[in-house]
Amino acid sequence: VIFNGNFEFSTLSFLNEKKFLSILNINLLIPIRIVNKLITNNLLNTNSKVFFLSSKAANLPEVGNAYYSISKNSLNFAAKILNKEHKKKKIKFITISAGIIESKMGKKVKQLISLNNKRSLKNLDTSIYNLVNYIKSSIENKRTIKL
C-alpha cells in the first residue's frame, strides 16, 4: 500500500511551476519509483496487488485544487498503464479513491470546497480506520473494493 499526498492551494491560471512539480513528485513520481524498485528487485510475485491511495479529488475540478487533482488523476492513469504492462504476471495495481481523510490536509480541502460551493461534504468524508479496513477486506477476499 503506497500512501502519499500533498495539497496546496493552486490554480493553473497562476502557475507556480516549483510547487506543481513538487506535488507531482509526491503524488505521482514517488509512487511510480517505489513500484519500479519493487519490480526491479523482484519483490512482486504473480497475483500480487499494489494499492495506491488516490483521491476523489482526481475527478473534482475545484478551483484552487489544480495541482493535487491533476497529480492524483495522473496516478489513476498510471495504475491503468501498469496493469497492462504486468497483465501476463497477473500483478494488479489498484487505486483507492478515498474521500477527505480526517487530517490537517483534509480540513484545508473541506475549507476550499465549502468556499467554492455549497454542496454537501458527507459523501467525501472517510477516516484512516475505514480506509485500512477497506484495504484489509480487499486483500482477504482477493477482490477489489471501490470506495
Number of strands: 4
Q: Helical region count?
A: 4
Strand content: 5-15%
Rg for CA atoms? 16 Å
Provide the structure class: mainly alpha
Q: Report on the biggest sheet.
A: 2 strands, parallel
Uncertain stretches: 143-147
Q: What is the helix/strand order? A: HEHEEHEH
* N- to C-terminal distance: 15 Å
Query: Which descriptor suits the 3D outline?
Result: globular
Main sheet: which strands, in order across? Answer: 1-2
What is the averaged pLDDT score?
Answer: 79
- In percent, how helical is the residue content? 40-55%
Keywords:
4 helices, 4 strands, two-stranded parallel sheet, 147 residues
Description:
The strands form two sheets. A two-stranded parallel ribbon has the order 1-2. It is mainly α. Helix 1 (17-40) runs parallel beside helix 2. The model is unreliable at 143-147 (pLDDT under 50). It has helices at residues 17-40, 66-85, 104-116, 128-140, and strands spanning 49-53, 92-96, 100-101, 125-126.
Describe the protein's topology.
Blueprint: H1 17-40, E1 49-53, H2 66-85, E2 92-96, E3 100-101, H3 104-116, E4 125-126, H4 128-140
Parallel strand pairs: 1-2, 3-4
Helix pairs in contact: 1-2
Describe this structure in a few short sentences:
Helix content is 48%, strand content 10%. It has helices spanning 17-40, 66-85, 104-116, 128-140; strands spanning 49-53, 92-96, 100-101, 125-126. Helix 1 (17-40) runs parallel beside helix 2 (66-85).
